[in-house]
Specification:
Layout: E1 47-49, E2 70-71, E3 76-83, E4 86-93, H1 99-112, E5 132-136, E6 141-143, E7 146-148, H2 156-169, E8 175-181, E9 188-191, E10 204-210, E11 213-219, E12 234-239, E13 243-249, H3 251-254, E14 255-259, E15 269-275
Parallel strand pairs: 1-3, 2-12
Antiparallel strand pairs: 3-4, 4-13, 5-8, 6-7, 8-15, 9-14, 10-13, 10-15, 11-12, 11-14
Domain Fe2OG dioxygenase: 172-278
GO molecular function: dioxygenase activity
Biased composition (Polar residues): 1-12, 25-45
Amino acid sequence: MSANPRKSSRVQGSWAAPSGKQRPTKSSTNINYNSSASWGSQQEPRTSVESGVKLCAIAPNDVRVVPKEILIQNEGEHVISETSNGSSIIKFYPNFFEKSDANWMFETLLNEVQWRQNTNLKYGPDALEPRLTAWFSDYSYSYSGIVQQANPHWQPLLVALRDRLNKLHNYKFNSLLANLYRDGHDSVDWHTDAEAALGKSPPIASISFGDTRNFELREISEVKSDDDLAYCRRIRIPLTHGSLLLMTGATQHDWQHRVPKEYHDRKERVNLTFRVMFPSS
């Protein structure tokens, strides 16, 4: 366990000021944790359907074709696939927070969350996760050989972010896995968030603060062997400082995602992944 030794800072800011009113200065006003927050109140963006090469496509001469990577950078709702499981939908807001708000939120979470490094038993008894995490929920959560124990003690800013997301997008997020990527060597491997405790078609809301990291997805709906993985349709989304990414519909069934290692200079990044947990039967 590695607790963060930095001192607690006072949570302040103007991000929750009602729209249409003059935003108070950060130095004099505490956060207003109510539903009138102005950030993220933009209308639902336009819809753009990302289509193209089918997964593991076979050319007429039986030569397999590696699909070209799809890059998503623009704000909008992107329907990335349609299968028998339903529509896989990505909603991306690269400027969900103003930069000044994103700056102090990043510093607050970096300093006040009790980060720890877990052992990933999936890779062996001494294999440490290549990132730090913190779990907030009334429920425990098991994934990839790791068990996150229930922790109902939410940091105040995290409560405000959760409640605002629920109001804006009509979800009932009640759990949060927070991640701290210390540099470009920290990462998370290919996976889906499709545990039974998350429900049938789990929505995931991902907020990013700090340095930009690439978020990658690959379609697995037609994968039958490891050889097929080289021919999967792939998507890359640079998750910027103050951005929001929503994965909805069949995304967790038909796509895997990861944050790969990057071997050039990357600074710290905080990533908040909100989810809906259901009590085990």
